Each structure stands twice: as structure tokens, then as C-alpha cells.
Amino acid sequence: MKGLPMREDDLQAYVDDRLDPVRRAEVDDWLVAHPLEAARLRSYRKQNKALQALFAPVLDEPLPEALKVARPQAKPKGMGLLRMAAMLAAVGLGSVLGWTLRGEVQLVQARNEAVAPAQLPALQMATVATADTGLARRAAVAHAVYSPDVRRPVEIGADQEDQLVAWLSKRLGSNLKPPKLGRLGYELIGGRLLPGDKGPVAQFMYHDASGKRLTLYVSRETGDDKETAFQFSEIGPIGVFFWVDRGVGYAISAGADKAELAQVAVTVHEQLRLP
Amino acid sequence: MDDSIKPNEDIGACIPRLRRYARALLGVRGEADDLVQDTLERAWRKLHLWRRDTELRPWLFSIMHNIFIDQRRRAPEETVSLDEHALEFPVAPAQERMMEMVDLESALRMLPAEQREVILLVGLEQLAYKDVAVALGIPVGTVMSRLSRGRERLRELMEGRQRVVALKVVK
ipTM score here? Predict the structure, then answer.
């Protein structure tokens, strides 16, 4: 036999057309005398072709919204805190980011936007971790599951608000009252308890005069004492405004735009701070 | 920084192939796109760690691999998604071909993840063996042995199923 003895690696590389022409010719010769091996390699080549045929259509699919993210801007390193605060205050429009306490700009999720309502100076410097986007997703899912429910959107209705407050407060281990959003045209329907990642989660549901529903998701699952800026994310048709304050995650979900949800977020933030 | 290198745009150009690989790896569209999104977020955050004299694609696949591994570690029990049978692939022209492909899809799912990754990076993404080694953080020799075992396993699975069908026919 010519050349080196045949090794399995050569045969695999033959399947993938990664041999130099000399070696490839040697394998070709060798296969003539080894029909079973030839059949095996033909089958592997078929696997490659079949894999490509099977998954090629994915390449042509339009990108889902969540992946059509804005690219992060150039990294403004060493930016002064004052300037950052000024920029942050001017955001809302910004296509970007969360700010770390170290003063570095960090990408969170490009479609999340850090928003700094002028009324909330305490939240202007905040740590944002990617885990927070999990909060938004879970809140959006809970919203999507329960808000269309006509007959039983909540477990305890607003007509039994005392009972609702007592029950959710007990289960969450802290005093939790549904915020009043009447000023913004939203009336409380009631609430329910949901399983979260690390414990129970409360969901309050509201509706406006047109019947549009809005949910507030309150979760202790973030654990530590961290805080984040207000962030906005769109998950499918649902807009989610969310933040973490003293280790408690809040997320407001509705089929509403950012401006409207921001108003609700500010109101909720004013009224609802778990001790 | 070399102005001719625009990593942001390059990353953007890689998204369709990252999606294709993730879909093949996980099977379920939603999960696959979540994996791609996590990969992109981490890539942009860690772009300063990418060595510009190396290729971008293996680096991106290595990020995806690490996230994939982390997620599996966190949820070690394989769960079968209800969506498994509702995979969204455009209809193939011939019925016969479709049957074969459904078989390939389920055979892929039965492979150990480490073999599936190698087979897909080599056979689907056509990465060079050394780039697969970089992406998965393993020696080239390990790539080759997983490739060999994985391909043979895939063949057995697909042919095995045909034998079962044949046995049913015989009375």
C-alpha cells in the first residue's frame, strides 16, 4: 500500500473533503478494496448533506425582533460620573444600556433601555445584570398567561382587597399592598400568587375603561440588596417596564407603549416599596 | 484598532449561522433563539477579550458552547419539549425526503450533546477541525474521536429505525 497506513482521522477528513489531493487519492484507492468502509463513509457524507438541507431554511428566516438588536455604541471609557448622570438623565431615548457602579458602560440587552425618570435620583446609578432580563421575561409570560383569562384572571378579587393583601403579604413574607393606579385610569381587578424561580411571586392585575389589562409582578427572587435602573423591554406584543429595588424585582406588563408604562412605573415605585 | 475590522458588523453577519447551529443543537426554535440572544449579549460585553488575529466565528461558537454547557449544568435533566413535534421547518419537496429528515432530526436529539456539537460544527457549520477544538475548548484529537463515534451512532440510529420498521412488516 502506498503512503501512510489508513487512520480513522483520515477517513473522517475524507468525508469532510479536508485531505490534500495526494492523500485523498490514496483513500480513494484504499476504499476500492474496502467496500464496507466505503459504504460507511458514503453514509457519513449523506449525513452532512442531510444536515445542511434540514437546517438551511433557518438561514433565510427573517431575524426575530429580539435578535435585531441595536449594536452597542463605542464604549465611553473613563467617563466622569457627572457626565454619565447627565447622559443618563437625558436617556429615555438612548438605545442602550445599564450603568455599573464602576462607571463602565455595560450592555444589558440591546432592546432594553435604561430610563431615568427625573423624579428618581436614587435610581440613577444602578447595577444591571443580565439576570434582570429573566425578570422581564417571567413577568411577560405571566401576563400573557393570565391577562386574557376572562372568567378567572385573578385568584382573589379587588372586592376582597383586605384578604388579598393579607394573603399575598403572608406568602411573600412582607407587607404588600396593591398600588392605586386610578389616577392613571387603571382599576385593580385582583391578584394571584405564582411560583417564581426561588419562591412565590405576586401578580396584581388592573384594567382600564377599555378593558385593557395591565399586570404588576412582584418577586423576591433576586435575593440580594441590589438595585437597577428602570428598564424597558418588549417581549412579543407585551411591553415590560421593570426594575429591582432593594432586592425586590418589579415588572409592569401591558400591551402599552413605553411612555404609558413609564408613568405607571413611577407611580408604582412611589407607592410600593417593600420594607 | 484596525479600522478595517468592524466586529459589531461582523457579529451581526454571523447571526443567521448562529441561529442555524443553535436550532440544530436544541431543536426548539424559542430556546435556540434565546441561546443566540444570550450569546450575542455576552459577545458584545466581552468583545475586548476577542483576539483580533483569530477568527470571529469560532470565538462566537465558543461563547455559545459555554452558555449551552452552563444551562445544561443548571438543568441536567433532559426534558422533552412539547414543541418537539411542531418544529418549524419549511416543507421539503418530496414526502420521502421529509421522512428521512425527520429521522435525522430525532436521531440528532438522541446523540449525547458533546457528539451532537461536534457533528454540527463540522458537518453543518463546516468549521475546520482546529476551529471546532477552539470553540469547544478540547484538543483536536478529542474532536476527531467524538466525530467518529457520533457519526457512527447517528448512522446506527437512523438505520436501526429502518430495521424496526422492516421487522413490523415481516409476519
Answer: 0.77
